[in-house]
Amino acid sequence: MHLILFIVFAALCLTGAVNLLLQKHPINSALSLIVVMTSLAVLYLLLGAEFLAAAQVIVYAGAIMVLFTFVVMLLNAGREERTLGSKAARTVGFPAVVAVLALIATTILRTQGIGNAAIEDQITSTADLSAILFTKLLLPFEVTSVLILVAILGSVALARQGDGERVDTK
Amino acid sequence: MNTVHVVQHEVPLAWYLLLSAVLFCLGIVGFLIKRNLITMFMSIELMLNAVNLSFVTFAHQWHQVRGQIFVFFVMMVAAAEAAVGLAIIIAVFRTRATLAVDRIDLMKL
Fold first, then answer.
1. Could you tell me which CATH number the domain at B11-103 has?
2. A127 and A74 within one domain
3. What is the mean pLDDT of each run of 10 residues along chain A (170 residues)?
4. CATH number at residue A13
5. Nearest CA in chain B to A22
6. Chain A residues touching B40 at Cβ < 8 A
7. Model's pTM, two decimal places?
8. Measured between alpha carbons, how far is B29 from B40 in angstroms, rounded to an integer?
9. What domain range is A70 assigned to?
10. Distance from the first to the final alpha carbon of chain A
């Protein structure tokens, strides 16, 4: 059961990621990224991370991707012209990507003692997660709230700046 | 008989790590070949997700909650990053009226 679910959703994940690269229109890329993120949520669930699976769907597939599709539609982004990237990307970038992938893959495959995942493994409940998050890691958790506040203020300031200039020119 | 039964129902965690590595490299390739500001940003999100998958895999491997908490913080930072980044993209589009990165090559307005 675990194997079947893993193969189905890993394949869905990879197809979505490849489709993101092949699509020319940004809205199609955004939709395939939603497929990737939702199937990653199922993989998190298979690994026993139930809270993260829910957060992945709500935060990533929900909030962030809605923001992306909203911006794509707001800016009316059309088809992009296909290039193979700059000369530096061709000569250095792609061989480097292949080298990184080969390095990581050989390291993973050579390492002994990486265990297995089965469907009857223990699930990390939200209570376990919050017990550490709200005791030992309370300070970093509170600092992230400041980060989110700064991000909200920053994006509002960035979005309003253009309006002010436009009013001035008129 | 019993061992065969167990093997059929288990997935090596190395496969999850390999999937994470492949997704990360697809994100890098997307960042290199895409010429649109928004799709390049999406490739960065893909890379962040790939790293999150390996965090969750290692949290499962070591039976620790820390890895999952790391993913939680990465999600928070990614949400903040997406909001600010998309606001910057809107501001750039207002002044340049284009999303092609080849034509956005000056910091000066």
1. 1.10.287.3510
2. yes
3. 90 95 91 94 91 92 91 82 69 88 90 76 83 91 93 88 52
4. 1.20.120.1200
5. B30
6. none
7. 0.88
8. 10
9. 2-136
10. 65
